[in-house]
Amino acid sequence: MKVLVNSGPWLAVPPPGYGGIENVVATLIPALRERGVEVVLASVGSSAVEVDELLAVYDDGMFAELQKPYNQVTGVAHAHQARVAAELRARDDIDLVHDHVEVVGPAVLAALDGPPVLHTLHWDLRKHPAFYGAFPRSIAVNGVSRSQLARAPEALRAASLGAVHLATPLAAGPPPRLRRDEHVVVMGRVCALKGQHVAARLCQKLGLPLVLAGPVCGRNTPAELDAVAQDPYHPLSSHPDVRYHLDQVAPYLDGDLTRWVGGVEGEERDRLYASARAALFPIQWDEPGGTAVVEALALGVPPVGLRRGCLPELIDHGRTGFLADTEEELAEWLPRAGEIDPEECRAEARRRFSPSVMAERYLDLYGRVLAARQA
Ligand code: UDP
């Protein structure tokens, strides 16, 4: 079977550091190829994941464009998508398209008389109500958690093939041998939805060292962010994520107990994550998929978070982490993270969130989509 995996023009696969969807695609592709699937990847030229063929309009990820006004963003998305569409018109060797591109992906693919398409929904589906409310019927969909689908518009939920949880290669390999440190970590892009300000408030109250890791609006270092913050004419200086960091997170950053280390990647990221006493998820939205949660489990770091979105599907309260309904409850559970057995977390990740588990689920869905086309 030959599958065109469309991950979009925003970041390379795997991403250099932060990248939710691209990390998922980077996890899925090797596991599909191990199972004999030929993969054509539509992404950017700097993608280093091994594939049978790479299609790219742009050499490098266009993530910075995502911060710009909407019409420029869609310009990039459309250029990428037009290339995918042209390819699908010109050839007949692609059996199925596995699409991961928000809105523009399905919109363009639905207008083609091409191979069947499975679109993976990665977002909070309330984000584009008009689009998801009238999702093209010719395209099959799956979600990344049951809770995400439960909030989907009725027709989309009814048509979906179910939820496939996210996975991580960390669940397949041996865990890094590290001494546990005292710090709590929040791993994620810095924005109000991920709740870094709640983490900072909480850890200061409890006297726990906190490391916040993740980019602000694509800025990976304090110096890069300073350059934006100090230039009132910079197009990003009034961006909500930049304002959030400056106004709500920065006041807690004392360089000692509470630190922001910017975006981290590779071994540095894994070391920082794996040596933490707990991974904190004080999320302020209904997290659709939560790659960072399954990564924490795979590294044997107990996740402690608010009972929202997909978190109750990923964390078994009291066995593999803790879930709380309020910030006060979080303050009670966080110091108890040491009661969770790291081996239990790792075993859970191997059983439920490994690349093989995800690939088998997708192969099953590919089979169903192909069978529906033939029927
Ligand atoms: N991440 C990273 N470096 C950072 C912050 C995050 O590599 O500094 C990774 C993180 O490990 C995870 C992904 O980026 O793999 C974020 O995905 P998640 O689903 O948790 O969040 P979202 O897609 O909502 O941003």
Q: How would you describe the overall organization of this protein?
A:
With 375 residues, the protein is an alpha/beta fold. The chain folds into 2 domains: 2-167 and 354-374, Rossmann fold; 170-352, Rossmann fold (3-Layer(aba) Sandwich). It contains 15 helices and 12 strands. The chain has helices at 20-34, 70-90, 104-110, 129-133, 146-150, 154-159, 196-206, 222-229, 240-249, 266-274, 291-298, 311-314, 327-333, 342-352, 355-374, and strands at residues 2-6, 38-43, 53-56, 96-99, 117-120, 140-142, 184-187, 210-213, 258-262, 278-281, 303-306, 322-324. The strands form 2 sheets. It has a 6-stranded parallel β-sheet with strand order 3-2-1-4-5-6, sandwiched between helices. Strand 4 (96-99), helix 3 (104-110) and strand 5 (117-120) form a beta-alpha-beta unit. The mean pLDDT is 93. The protein binds uridine-5'-diphosphate. Residues 183-334 form the Glycosyl transferase family domain. It comes from Nonomuraea pusilla. GO terms for molecular function: glycosyltransferase activity. One of its GO terms (biological process) is carbohydrate derivative biosynthetic process. Keywords: Glycosyltransferase, Transferase.
